[in-house]
Design brief:
Blueprint lengths: L2 E9 L15 E2 L2 E2 H9 L3 E7 L5 H5 L3 E3 L9 H15 L5 E6 L8 H12 L4 E6 L2 E10 L3 H9 L6 H6 L4 E5 L13 H17 L2
Parallel strand pairs: 1-4, 1-6, 4-5, 7-9
Antiparallel strand pairs: 2-3, 6-8, 7-8
Helix pairs in contact: 3-5
Length: 209
């Protein structure tokens, strides 16, 4: 399965302040953390871009398309999403949607990408995001490009910054995921999170043997 009308965008523009070093390039299970996201997305989507303000050799070495924030300054993930939308409209004529993913959630289920593809064909909602046990995970989202102008206006003129505030005002459809003992959308922010993720990964591997 490989879709032409959806661009996959990985948001990697954070400053990694709590980690103290660049999260996308932390080694986790023998590869950079961001690679776990890339490897899942490329199974389903033809076009992947990385929203980042960094010029790391990892990107050029792996022939990845990087795009800098369209609004300067640390504005948060909504600017990253707008950046992906604007890039898609300019560079990928067939694109109707942008699917967004964080760079620091190695356990997220690939089924969410399949769900995004199915929902894009239904065309029932302009905005879909993941949730698990009533917790919103808005970075995992499917965004119609028809929302681009509204998002830009809200960012520039209305100074909206929180992604949750914006999604809730724009008829979000939640894709609910159930889990047992760990949230697959868990993201790594600190060294403690990284250690937890390593232990969890080891446990998952042993259970699947």
């Amino acid at each position: 399965m490989s879709e032409n009308n959806i661009v996959g965008a990985i948001l990697a523009g954070g400053q990694s302040k709590r980690m103290g070093r660049d999260k996308p390039f932390l080694m986790f299970d023998s590869k950079a953390l961001i690679e776990h996201t890339i490897d899942k997305i490329k199974k389903y989507l033809k076009k992947i871009i990385i929203i980042t303000n960094q010029n790391n050799e990892f990107f050029s070495k792996n022939k990845l398309v990087t795009v800098k924030d369209c609004i300067e300054g640390q504005q948060g993930p909504l600017v990253g999403i707008l950046t992906a939308m604007k890039w898609a409209k300019k560079n990928f004529n067939e694109c109707l949607w942008v699917a967004t993913f964080p760079c620091d959630s190695p356990f997220f289920p690939e089924s969410i990408i399949q769900d995004f593809i199915k929902e894009s064909k239904k065309n029932e909602s302009l905005l879909l995001c993941a949730s698990s046990h009533e917790r919103k995970h808005n970075i995992f989202g499917l965004w119609s490009l028809s929302l681009c102008d509204k998002l830009q206006d809200d960012l520039i003129n209305n100074k909206v910054r929180k992604i949750q505030d914006w999604t809730e005002k724009n008829k979000i459809k939640n894709l609910e995921f159930k889990f047992n003992d760990y949230d697959p959308f868990f993201n790594i922010n600190t060294q403690e999170d990284l250690e937890f993720a390593k232990k969890l990964n080891k446990r998952i591997k042993s259970e699947n043997q």
